[in-house]
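Moderator note: this is an archived Q&A kept for reference. The question asked for a predicted structure of one protein chain; the sequence and the answer are reproduced below.
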Amino acid sequence: MKKNLAYIISVIVLFGIFTVVYVANMIMIRNLTKKIDDGLLQYQILLNENKELRTRYESLIAKDRIVSIATNQLGMVFPQESPIILQISKQRIQSLEGN
């Protein structure tokens, strides 16, 4: 009888331990799944923001926009003549640096 009672108690204790471990694992898995889902959502938000910023950047560096601002707001004009290209030899630069 005592062996039977000890056996029953040990089975109940083991069952309780297994139940607690199982529930703890399920809670941990649910929490990790929630963290993964939150991370994926944050990743998607950042990807969308990145796309928006790239689109805005491309519109800001558009040549037509820059030319329009330069001519209309800043009063700049394109040169009428080709620029003069000066060629100076290294020897001439060295002689000027020596003075």
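Archived answer notes: The radius of gyration is 38 Å.
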